Amino acid sequence: MNxxxxxxxxxxxxxxxxxxxxxxxxxxxxxxxxxxxxMINKLLNRKSLARVSGTPGKTITINFYNIDDTIYLVDLxxxxxxxxxxxxxxxxxxxxxxxxxxxxxxVQTILLVDSRHKPSKDDITMAEWIRHYHDRxxxxxxxxxxxxxxxxxxxxxxxxxxxxxTDDDILVPFSTKDDEGKYTVWDMIxxxxxxxxxx
Length: 199
Known about the structure:
By secondary structure, this protein is of the alpha/beta class. It has a single domain (6-198), classed as Rossmann fold, CATH 3.40.50. 35% of the residues lie in helices and 21% in strands. The chain contains 5 helices and 7 strands. It has a 7-stranded mixed β-sheet, with helices on both faces. β5 (106-114), α3 (121-133) and β6 (138-142) form a beta-alpha-beta unit. The chain starts with 5 loop residues before the first strand and ends with a helix.
């Protein structure tokens, strides 16, 4: 996708702040520091449009990136941040579940997991949420460039098995160091957007 415009439209802390344009939304979920912002920057060929917070996991906002007044890429707040209080964790959970369950323009949530590690309990929970609210589970395995080539296949199999993925699900290796996964993710977004427009 050749994007002409890519701007952050709003960093929302409550649903009344969400955009009201009705543009299709494609959200990215994952633990803190899994690479959501880096992935969005890579997809948009920008270096710092999506910025990594100085206090990862502390700021609970949903960031909406307006792409050519056509779609939004949505950066969801990360989970699994050890220093987050119980109150903050509960607020995160309520915000995420409400967004996933009730956000009309949301077409698909894409789960990001670190390809170097077995998915965590939080990753499994998020995968179950995504399955509940969407037709399929789409997972991007980030930071594949940090693996040896001999490790990649085994690590992807571990992710697939741990998240109990099926033939209806999609697992995409992704690296910000090269273009691995970039065009696959865009192709999926384009196909899902086209399918929604045909409904």
